[in-house]
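Repro:
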Amino acid sequence: MHDSRNTLTSDSAIAPLPPAPSQAQAARARWRKRARKLAPYAFISPFFILFAVFGLFPLLFSIWLSLHQWDAPAGLAAMHWVGLENYWYALTDPWFSKSLLTTLWFAVASGVPQHLVALPLAFLIHTTLKRSRNFVVGAYFVPYITSSVAVALIFTTLFSKDFGVINAILPGPPIDWLGDAFWARITVAIVVFWRYLGWNVVLYLSALQVIPGDLYEAATLDGASRWQQFRHVALPLLRPMMFFAITLTLIGNLQLFEEPFILIPPDSGLAIDVMTTAMFMYRMAFSDGDFGTASAVSWLLFFLIAALTYGNARLFGKEGTGDVAR
């Protein structure tokens, strides 16, 4: 009787082996395996290349430049090492100190009212408006995305001494809003407040929408008024967003440049009275040609922003920097 096991054994013994891959096929297989590993990095490489060229290199070059004196038209070979002299020169320059005080004044005069108005306004929109909420929020947000030049032209017309609408409404003699040092600062602060109020309203409104409605219902059943709900329910839960919004306000106001630069002409006598640190840095670089000191001023401003941001974080504490939904 024929044994099938012997047949299978004999068949498998005489079966030809698969041909060994050639060197070219092995090389292609290795290349495909390597390509699969490198493909994700190739897809994300454009971001890192653009960041290195337009972000990291200017940052590192500004640090290097702040330690040199440089005549830009003469090329990179004209850079002369001075160490920390640029920082010391900026710190001892009275115009830098004055610009820094002006910047801090604008940060307080325009930044504090933004949040004092945006907080209750966002709560009012959240609790009162339903169908027209998006329209109202959009109307408040429009100034934030409006061109700075258009804003400056509008407010220059509104605050005109002889033909402005503001002086036409106010009683008494006309105020020289853009020709007097005191009123020029007030005008710039009003413009900054008007432009960035809507941004803060949107931030606080987005945080209010995360708060569960059951908390308001429970407060209503306990007899809490609308003001008590805002004070004892909304405000404690808005601390993380308040930290975030105030930090953005600090960063933005300490870098204030566009509004005073466009509203007050640089060749007017009032440009010095509204000159912020960013404007001082711009003039130091592009008017005086001292790019080294201008870079040093930019880093001094960075350290000030970092210190104030750290102080803001300590002020709000760990609870104020946590998640809004927590």
